[in-house]
Amino acid sequence: MTASATADLAIVGGGMVGASLAVMLAPLGLSIALIEAQPVESAAQPSFDARTTALSNGTRKILSTMGVWDAVAAEATPIRSIHISERGRLGRAVIDAAEQSLPAMGYVLPNRVLGRELWRRLAGVPGVVVHSPATVTAVSADEQAVTVAWEQMGIASSVSARLVVAADGANSLVRTGSGLGATRRDYAQCAIVTSASPSQFHEHVAYERFTDEGPVAVLPLGDGRCAIVLTLPPEAATAAMQLDDAGFLDLVQARFGWRLGRLTALGRRDCYPLALTEAEDNVAARTVLVGSAAQGLHPIAGQGFNLALRDAATLAEVIADSALAAAPDERRDPGAPALLERYRDWRERDRRVLISFTDGLVRLFASPLPPLRFARSLGLLAFDLSPSAKSAMSGLSRGFATAQPRLARGLPLVGGLVS
Ligand SMILES: Cc1cc2nc3c(=O)[nH]c(=O)nc-3n(C[C@H](O)[C@H](O)[C@H](O)COP(=O)(O)OP(=O)(O)OC[C@H]3O[C@@H](n4cnc5c(N)ncnc54)[C@H](O)[C@@H]3O)c2cc1C
Fold first, then answer.
1. Which of 82-86, 166-170, 349-353 shows the lowest per-residue confidence on average (mean pLDDT)?
2. Separation between Cα atoms, residue 233 and residue 256, nearest integer Å
3. Ligand 1 centroid to residue 36 C-alpha, Å
4. What CATH number belongs to 5-76+109-185+276-409?
5. Of ligand 1's atoms, which has the minimum distance to the CA of residue 292?
6. Ligand 1 atom at minimal distance to the Cα of residue 134
7. Domain boundaries in the chain?
8. E strand or H helix at 114, and its extent?
9. Ligand 1 midpoint to CA 269 (Å)
């Protein structure tokens, strides 16, 4: 594409959310420029890296409707129950899928598996032109169009589109370029992500254990191994990254306990600084923010991608509706102000509830104050005894929007029922 190229839509960032959105939009036949800095198989790819993601049942449904789930299901590990506890306190809670009449509470999927399948699908979409490795350097919008400029192997290019979608992560250049501000609150915590083999089978249980130094999550993987997300203050995380494998496993064992017996065969370790990033708005002139560009959450509740996929499914639907409503000879405009307003209104409640839920959880479990610690234990006990609280928790899977987008209900963007 040269400086004079045009497209209906430019998506900046082909990570978990940008690539998902491009696949969702494929049936609409729009012309889409997808610009991604790091190719999907690159070791430096920050979205499809060595992490695994806990997917909710709602996310599974969206991926199914997109036709992606069947291709990745063999590598997804079901979570049959979730066990929540606090080190040194009596309270604990268990949410069981069978009790909730669900086949699973969610699924654990390696990010690379999802990335490979999304990018494989993108290669076959006629309207999508992929520019990668290409780094977006500037965006500028007026009433009619937005110009997105990038550099690829030292060559500058640009496209003029009706809408730009910022799917370029928490430090979004598109967000800044559109003039939208964002607040960033550093949690003064880092998550070290790794994996290990437990001596006892995990029985498909996902553990979330709160400790004074931060939470530790242990998630089931298909080969009997477990994914580990250990949260620590930054200096402690730096020290933990320097430990040898035996020293690091001792640290995890001290934090997590012995529920799964001895942990051995530690995998590769990666460290992520944690912050809450919240854009002041998720739309601007000819611009929409999705995923981490709109809101970057603490992984404590495993909701970031699940929320973000609902951003993408909703945006795909408002674009589809406007394209289908337009008369055949009318030029469709995916960046029209009314469409952006509809997207903003639809996403408002879900984003607000999930951001405050996740942030509240971090604050509640970060506090060393005795009354709060006592309340936490009581809270876990009460939660464990309350079927309605557990069923409300299962509702996290669907999110809190006033209405579910079609893809989350098993309906394709265009045409009849899929699943
Ligand atoms: C430790 C950890 C564990 C997590 N676990 C879970 C979980 O279990 N469940 C869950 O739901 N969520 C989880 N999340 C959240 C989830 O990872 C994010 O919600 C998700 O990655 C957001 O995807 P994204 O595509 O919006 O942004 P990103 O993943 O940040 O991707 C942004 C993409 O944009 C590209 N890009 C950036 N700038 C440019 C540019 N200028 N030009 C071109 N391309 C650019 C990048 O290369 C990248 O590919 C976790 C997060 C962390 C940190």
1. 82-86
2. 16
3. 12
4. 3.50.50.60
5. 26
6. 43
7. 5-76+109-185+276-409, 186-273
8. helix 111-123
9. 18
Task: Classify residue 415 as exposed, middle or buried by CB count within 10 Å of its CB (0-12, 13-18, 19+).
Answer: exposed
Rounded distance between C-alpha atoms, residue 291 and residue 305, angstroms: 7
Across the chain, mean pLDDT equals 91
What are the structure tokens assigned to 223, written together? 């080969």
Render pLDDT for 307-330 as a digit per residue (tens, 0 to 9).
999 999 999 999 999 888 766 655
Q: What pLDDT score was predicted for residue 255?
A: 94
Ligand 1 site, residue 135, Cβ cutoff 6 A: yes
- Any ligand 1 atom below 6 A from CB of 54: yes
The pick from 21, 42, 45, 47 for probing ligand 1's pocket by mutation, whose C-beta has the most ligand atoms within 8 angstroms, reads 47
Split at pLDDT 50, 70, 90, the class of 174 is: very high
Q: Is 20 in the pocket of ligand 1 (CB under 6 A)?
A: no
Least confident of 39-53, 198-212, 289-303, 365-379: 365-379
- Kindly tell me if the per-residue pLDDT of 136 is higher than 70: yes
Question: What average pLDDT does the segment 272-300 reach?
Answer: 97
Same fold, 5-76+109-185+276-409 and 186-273: no
Task: Kindly tell me if the per-residue pLDDT of 385 is higher than 80.
Answer: no
Of 62, 85, 87, nearest in space to 72 by CA: 62
How deeply is 210 buried, as exposed, middle or buried, from its count of CB atoms within 10 A (0-12, 13-18, 19+)?
buried
Burial classification of residue 200, based on how many CB atoms lie within 10 Å of its CB (0-12 exposed, 13-18 middle, 19 or more buried) = exposed
Ligand 1 neighbour 110 (Cβ under 6 A): no
> Mutate which of 108, 168, 276 to test ligand 1's pocket (most atoms within 8 Å of Cβ)?
168
Is pLDDT of 44 > 90?
yes
User: What mean pLDDT is predicted for residues 59-83?
Assistant: 97
* pTM exceeding 0.85: yes
Mutation to probe ligand 1, out of 34, 51, 165 (largest number of atoms < 8 A from CB): 51
What is the topology classification, in CATH, of domain 186-273?
D-Amino Acid Oxidase; Chain A, domain 2 (3.30.9)
Distance 185 CA to ligand 1 centre (A): 17
